[in-house]
Amino acid sequence: MVNEVIIYTDGACSGNPGPGGYGIVLISGKHRKEISEGFRLTTNNRMELMAAIKGLEALKKQGTPVKLYTDSQYLANAINKGWVFDWERKYFKKKKNQDLWIRFLDLYRRHNVTLVWVKGHNNDTENERCDILAVNASRESALSEDTGFNPENDDLLLI
């Protein structure tokens, strides 16, 4: 049996839209891995989703039990309240971040994922570490392009 993997994620954006980044901490038994990346122009919600995607993409075995911690109510509520499954049935009509939601749902369905919302900036050690990783990534000199971000269909309003 595969051991449960703990994934902490966070996204950051300086301006919304603006330069952004994500940070991830993966924990499996005694193993720990940190991942981060920054982007020139993106949004906070895109970075929250990208963190969850990249965390799940790092898993090597399909069907892995995962507890994914996020301080994003956008992500947690979309899954835990079932909103995203309604959006998917309607082909994400008039919904932002369709490209990332499709990627996320594919990965989500490959594993046994439980999404847990944690309050941000509330002294949760791993959430705080992810925040540091995300902010630092957003400040790197060589930032990637968020090819799925369309400033004309930006993500300024939270659900």
List keywords for this structure.
alpha/beta; disordered C terminus; globular; 35% helix; 159 residues; 5 helices; five-stranded mixed sheet; Nucleotidyltransferase, domain 5
Summary?
This protein is of the alpha/beta class. The chain has helices at residues 44-57, 73-80, 83-89, 98-110, 125-138; strands at 5-13, 18-28, 31-42, 65-70, 112-117.
Rounded to an integer in angstroms, the radius of gyration calculated over CA atoms is 15 Å
Distance between the termini: 37 Å
Count of distinct strands: 5
Oligomeric form: single chain
Name the CATH class.
Answer: Alpha Beta
The CATH homology group name: Ribonuclease H-like superfamily/Ribonuclease H
* Proportion in helices: 25-40%
With strands numbered from the N-terminus, the spatial order across the biggest sheet is: 3-2-1-4-5
Unreliably modeled segments: 155-159
Estimate what percentage of residues fall within beta strands: 25-35%
**Biggest sheet features:** 5 strands, mixed
Helix/sheet category:
alpha/beta
What best-fitting shape do the alpha-carbon axes yield? globular
As for the number of domains, it is 1
Provide the CATH topology. Nucleotidyltransferase, domain 5
- Overall mean pLDDT score? 93
Q: Report the order of strands and helices.
A: EEEHEHHHEH
Any guess at the CATH architecture? 2-Layer Sandwich
Number of helices: 5
